[in-house]
Protein: Glucosamine-6-phosphate deaminase
Organism: Kroppenstedtia eburnea
Amino acid sequence: MILTVEEGEIDMISKSGIRVVAVSDYEELSREAARRIIAAVRQHPASVLGLATGSTPEGTYRELVRDHREKGTSYQQVTTFNLDEYVGLAANDPHSYHAYMEQHLFRHLDIPRGQTHLPDGTAEEPEVECRRYEEMIREAGGIDLQVLGIGVNGHIGFNEPGTPFSSETQVVQLAESTRQANQIHFEDPEQVPTHAITMGMATILRSRGILLLASGAKKAPVIQRLLTEAEITPDLPASILRSHEDVTLIADQEALSLVGTDLD
Ligand SMILES: O=P(O)(O)OC[C@H]1O[C@](O)(CO)[C@@H](O)[C@@H]1O
């Protein structure tokens, strides 16, 4: 394990090959993630960003919005691709990831709407939509920096355990644990869609840089598996991130609570 201390954070490279930035809590995670995204955009104003939804990146987006307002970081040349969208939810459905992104990020930035992309969950032919989405990412030159959350079962995007590492953007059935975890965003548990369109594992892995975010005790078991289990296996989709050369995990104390300093 390589351990350096930088601005009060513990920054280490675990034997898994994943760089770990340990922060104290969710607020610090949000600031640190935003700081890295802002640095990328300032360095390359025409960056292609891969974005995630879920509870974890909400604070990060809040920090991006604050920075845009206070320091004027511009997103006029940025292009974004979100990881996923629920099948059956229209962009104007308040539970859709389109709506989430509008609410938490896009409407607060100066990014032109033609440059923000999510899969169309209402496409008549979802398979065609998947190919179209994949092609758009390719045409944009691929993703420079992909923001990722992680499911309690190790999913990334909506790629549930068992998904082949070679998969591209695809329609998937959600695991029951995922539907349960996401119930908090719906009034009625029955409303949680059963399927989603998600970037595939190969799509995500082609990103040049990856920022994986994990916060809270609920994520501790999966983070322990990710950082300490040796095997790269579709049973733990996130384990493939160990084979990527530029992955940074920003995790708070609770998410790292089962790992401790036992990384080597
Ligand atoms: O940040 P959360 O809400 O814990 O979700 C983790 C992951 O699960 C998903 O929300 C899908 O269930 C992903 O989009 C996200 O990256």
